[in-house]
Amino acid sequence: MRPEEGTLISRAQAIAALLELLTDQPVIICNGFPSREAHKIADRPTHFYMIGSMGNAAAIALGVALAKPHKQVVTFDGDGNVLMGMGTLATVGALKPKNFIHVVFDNEVYGTTGNQPTISNVVPLEKVAKAAGYVNVERVLDRDDLVYEFKDMLKKDGPSMLLIKVNEFAEDAGRVLHGPPDMTKRFMQAIEG
Amino acid sequence: MIESDAFVQALQGMGVDFFTGVPDSILGGIIAELMDRRLYTPAVREDEAVGMAAGAYMAGKIPAVLMQNSGLGTSLNTLISLNQIYRQPCILIVSWRGQGGKDAPEHLVMGEVMPQFLDTMKIPHRVLTEKTAVEDFKWVAETFMKQRMPVALVITKGVVKGLHP
Predict the structure, then answer these.
(1) Chain A residues with beta carbon closer than 8 angstroms to that of B59
(2) Cα A100 to Cα A62: distance, rounded to the nearest angstrom
(3) How much is the average pLDDT of B103-125?
(4) Which member of A66, A67, A181 has the closest CB to residue B86?
């Protein structure tokens, strides 16, 4: 057991804390449990829930952020997802969109497929982001730090990454109920203007 | 031969206002023109470019993604499990490397199977020619609007002016 394992919060607890601090910002949520849990905790039209295209959450969020430079854009991502689309850390770091906040739930496993280990236990993803050019980068282990740092990031120019170490617990959340074409339409209308 | 600025002008005329992609020599002239006009956002992988285009589309843009045909392989999962499932269109500007078996070895297999590959992926496609350019662009615009799916305009060597004449 890792030294911090017993004290970590769950991803669902982290998502609940983050969503309390968000209002009408577009949030692009990666495939797997993060989308299912966010959908269960608070289903907002400004949420774009991914069901496929693993590794692309940050790229989609970047597209939104570049097209809407005056809107703060958030992505909820996972360690497996970030590792799969790691090149996007470089693209974000190079383009430096000020309105881009990248939240990574790091549980060191591929959760939906049976908790096979990723390699984020030995590759600190927030350091990769920092090296790539993210402006603000924080790694947090508990709810209080999460709230403090995320509030701070909402006030700062990015790009920012908040990496939250979470335990492996997955909420009994069910699948996202909206049909994918409806999610596209709903999200587009919600972030218009 | 179609001039790069005329090509970009035609896309802008269709309303395309977000350009990303990964370069190819056949697309060199077009990308140089896009960079001159400060319209181009470079991506590091084609699936990332397709993802960025999807985000831009949902934020109200009309996106185009430039890539060589090898990039179709790289972006396959994004094109089917994002664009097709969620009905998010984008215009793929795809250079046809390996066409007719005359290219470096790494291009030959994709060069041969590309039309069938696009058919299998249910991506409507058309090869741009100088003679039919006006209709080709019109077809792209109509297919984009009507089908709300990715559509590919295939660029063969020598049809659009490159960097090295």
Answers:
(1) 26, 63-64, 67-68, 188, 191
(2) 7
(3) 96
(4) A181
pTM comes to: 0.97
| Structure token pair of residue B24 | 């190819």
- Give the model's pLDDT for residue B162: 85
Task: Annotate A110-144 with b (16+ C-beta within 10 A) or e (fewer).
Answer: bbeeeeeebebeeeebbebbbebebbbbbbbeeee
Cα separation values, B149 from A92, B90, B121, Å: 26, 7, 11
CATH of the domain at A60: 3.40.50.970
Number of domains forming the structure of chain A: 1
Sort out which chain A residues have CB atoms less than 8 A from B53's CB and list them.
63
Q: Is it the case that residue A2 has pLDDT exceeding 80?
A: no
Domains along the sequence of chain B with CATH: 4-155 (3.40.50.970)
pLDDT of the residue at B29: 97
pLDDT tens string A51-62: 999 999 999 999
**CB-nearest partner of B52 from A48, A53, A59:** A59
Task: Report ipTM for this prediction.
Answer: 0.97
